[in-house]
């Protein structure tokens, strides 16, 4: 008897004993999302346009392979092909709709487009996906990574045995995007899901502590698959249903089928049966099914897992019923910072803590809680319960200040974003304008940030410090687009990342030339030291519109130069000059990536020894491939490599030039919003 026949017979016996049956998937699975309509339409249109292969390409076939695009060849070697003209319109041939091409977002919802894998082989795409970080260094990079994985797109040709859909789902689960992973699995037609996709769906549900739904899915998939995973899953569900007879039978099957080496599984099974606890030595590398068995055993996940890079365990600690309150708070705080849970989930955890009403009423007067996350929860609850705008603003200001000190400002801003909407943006709240401005930028609420900026500017005077605080924040305002800098727009950048226009000469490096009607000159923009900054910008023609545009740009550039001089003077007064120099380098490199001018005098101010420094940087191969992919408009490959390159942002001695290159590459492929969000988050995180 073959192994397959034996397993089938045993599973049938198990089905009769447990009542799970061998039926088809439940109705909910049958109603899974179909292949997106726009992909079907493009495939049908492609089929209608099919023509005979060109004589210049005798190796081409009349119909490309399912889901393929680009040139085909009679050879077997795969290559990453680049279009000869990156700006030319590229034709995209989908052929028959490939179930692997499904996604949950299209370009209108932030997807990278159906042609995003153009020029990339399937093997290379799979490698890029599998090597993406589980915890991207910034939330902006995490958002880009999720959209990369969720985008519906045509697939590269070749290596049909490689499943990009499985790789995408596995990476989503690894990075804690559980709901997204489940939706992506269910977007694939039911008949096309193999065991790996089915396991991924179950694992995502288990990590999220949704054991009921996980067991429904396990029952729905029935005896379709042979792997030991499914026998262990059935055993887990039997324990969860308090059916020891079925559980014992299935555990014996696991042992008989060669699963004895899984010490963690059998250790947890023993703990459930005895009512005791599993040996801590068995709980060092927890899998989703282990998290479920721990929950059934009513045993908490070891707090040591918070110090690991295991997203499943960190999420598990946050959601498990057995987790102590204070541990859950710190786990949720870490999980949100890593992007493993949403700010809304963090708010739910904070709201679950019981505080005395009197403690919330006197939150600004009482001493801080011993645990930082508990203090955040207390301030958040007090702000949420306050229906007086002024009182809520005062509490949020205290939350932002405490979080700023601990390096959690970005998280506090995301957490408080819904509470900020009820605070009027007017001069009565001028004292709150700068914290509200920073928080709005951090939460990507740029319309609200622009309004708070206007309140701050109109309220600045000699009796307050608003002006100096805005000066310190100026680089962030410039990068986020809230201040006009006279920069060449990112859309005007050449494919090599250089600007297609140049600015006028640096006033500190020599006299500014007056071009009369041929150029706009704005002298007299004062600096804090009493000097003058002027700028010259050449119009494209002598038309009144172009001359006015040049004049406006020159005025903006002059103001930008003056503001940068003020900012640099404040940096020179900082106590930690090493940190000030690193921050300046980051800003100057990012400015150049966006085409924002950095006067030579500012570069000169940080030209100090030591000239050779040890920096955390990416490999030359990553740098080369990133630039080449961007120049060829290979959107998916560029995004994946940009995410990898910006991982250095998590270390203190990160090379700012690498971070600038990621921004430039994203601009080249048309992802300006991602570039701005990434650069803004880098600056705000660095300067906490």
Give the topology:
Blueprint (H helix, E strand, L loop, with lengths): L2 H16 L8 H4 L6 H13 L72 H9 L8 H12 L13 H11 L3 H10 L7 H13 L3 H11 L6 H13 L3 H13 L6 H12 L13 H9 L14 H9 L5 H13 L5 H9 L5 H5 L10 H14 L3 H18 L2 H12 L12 H10 L3 H14 L6 H14 L40 E2 L3 E2 L5 E2 L2 E2 L6 H29 L4 H17 L6 H6 L14 H12 L3 H11 L10 H13 L3 H15 L2
Antiparallel strand pairs: 1-4, 2-3
Helix pairs in contact: 1-11, 4-6, 5-28, 5-30, 6-7, 6-8, 7-8, 8-9, 8-13, 9-10, 10-11, 10-13, 12-13, 14-15, 15-16, 15-18, 16-18, 18-19, 18-20, 19-20, 20-21, 21-22, 23-24, 23-30, 25-29, 27-28, 27-29, 28-29, 29-30
Question: Briefly, what is this?
Answer:
With 688 residues, the protein is mostly helical.
Give an account of the 3D structure.
With 688 residues, the protein is an all-alpha fold. It has 30 helices and 4 strands. It has helices spanning 3-18, 27-30, 37-49, 122-130, 139-150, 164-174, 178-187, 195-207, 211-221, 228-240, 244-256, 263-274, 288-296, 311-319, 325-337, 343-351, 357-361, 372-385, 389-406, 409-420, 433-442, 446-459, 466-479, 544-572, 577-593, 600-605, 620-631, 635-645, 656-668, 672-686; strands at residues 520-521, 525-526, 532-533, 536-537. Strands 1-4 form a two-stranded antiparallel ribbon. The chain has a two-stranded antiparallel sheet with strand order 2-3. The longest helix has 29 residues, at 544-572. It is globular. The termini are far apart. The relative contact order is 0.08.
Could you list some keywords that capture this structure?
mainly alpha, 53% helix, 688 residues, two-stranded antiparallel sheet
